[in-house]
Every structure is written in C-alpha cells, then in structure tokens.
Amino acid sequence: LLLGCELTASTKSYTFQVDEEDDSDHILALSVVCLTDGAKDECNVVEVVGRNHENQEIAVPVANLKLSCQPLLSLDNFKLQPPVTFRLAAGSGPVHLSGWHKIMHREDASFEEDDDLSEEDEEELPPIMPAKK
C-alpha cells in the first residue's frame, strides 16, 4: 500500500497508526521526503516521533530540506513500526512524504508447532526487519 502525506505551516504533523486489535505485523517504510510547490528557501526539518523500548516518546530528525541546496532526500525505504508521527519541527513547508505500508499477516499459532516443515520451507518465509536506529 502506498503512503503519502504533506506537512505544512497549518498541518505540522501526521500520525500513522493501525488498529491495536489487528493481529498483523505492520511496517511503514519512508522512501522520499521533498519540498513541493510554494516552499520558501528556508530550513524545513522533518522529525519522526515514536516510542522507545521504555515507552517514552522520542523525536528524531530525519530530513533537513532547503529549496536552494537540498529540496529532496531519498530515505531508501527507512523502516518504521506504527504508530509513528511525522512532524515539521522547523520551516513552513510544504513537505511531501512518500513511502509504503506493508502488512505481514501472522500465521495461526498451530503453524509454529507443525513439525512437518522442512528447512527449505522455513527459509522461504520473509524475515521481519528490525527498525533502523
């Protein structure tokens, strides 16, 4: 699923979340952050706001865009685990964020107990990617 949002002076944040009762694993990957039409030549800092292992809110800057020197940044599918908030910490934008949302359905619990799987079958399962730090 494709994801896109725009941060501006009037809409400084966007939160991506999934239903807490959903039993699937969700991965959100950011591809590109770029300034769009109407952006001023000023520093536009985009932060990702999430929670650490102690459930404390943390904000990490992922992009500092300026029209005259760096209007676009490729984040090479920077993987995040929802819920996550994107915030325009400085500047007035508009900044467009694009990426994708992948849903990995968990298998039934009996799947793990199935001893009939060969090693070859196990290798074909997609790995769960850890969040980059």
Automatic annotation (TrEMBL):
Gene Ontology, cellular component aspect = cytoplasm; nucleolus; nucleoplasm
One GO molecular function term?
Answer: chromatin binding
What keywords tag this UniProt record? Answer: Acetylation, Chaperone, Methylation, Nucleus, Phosphoprotein
Instruction: Tell me where it resides.
Output: Nucleus, Nucleolus
Subcellular location, principal: nucleus
Q: Where is the composition biased (Acidic residues)?
A: 110-125
Give a GO biological-process term. Answer: chromatin remodeling
Role summary: Plays a role in the regulation of diverse cellular processes such as ribosome biogenesis, chromatin remodeling or protein chaperoning. Modulates the histone chaperone function and the RNA-binding activity of nucleolar phosphoprotein B23/NPM. Efficiently mediates chromatin remodeling when included in a pentamer containing NPM3 and NPM.
Q: What is this protein called?
A: Nucleoplasmin-3
The UniProt gene name for this protein comes to Npm3
